[in-house]
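Please go through the protein record below and explain what the tokens say about the fold. Record follows.
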Amino acid sequence: MKRELNEYLFLEFGVEGTELQISESWPFELKEVGVVEGEHVFEFENDDEEFLAVYGRCLRFESKDGADLELLGRQIRGSRWIGARGPVSLSTSRGEHPVVPMIPERRTKIEELACGLGRTGVPQILEGLFLEKSREYLALVELPDEEVVHVVGSSIQIPDIPKSAVSAWKVLSRAVGGRI
């Protein structure tokens, strides 16, 4: 498991050396910290930055961003829930698709859902999705002069999430994963 992860990380990080040097402990010392949602999680460092490497359905890594196993579990659950519903982002055009509305219509619907929070101001859409399989909307929005963000959707609403330096996708998936 560690060797496979190190093979993957060697290529992803562009580590100097040869593939012959790859082992369970090189190029990174991987410390297993637990199993979340059936996936093995390891910590490692590169240039004084902490990362998590996940060995499960696929190999992947991400900046640790202060995440612990519980938070990572919520993120994995949320990502799976969203992914299973066929997410289409606001940057993806499907033309005159029979199920997926045009981009302006999707954007307007998400703005309407944000107005349902009962707050003032024009929302900034940080992450906006149309879930094709369930035909519903899901978004992370921010309103002016607020120190929080909000998940709005056709069937889910999670207000007042503290702002974070992590990506909008992580915030959205962690919030959804904590709710489902």
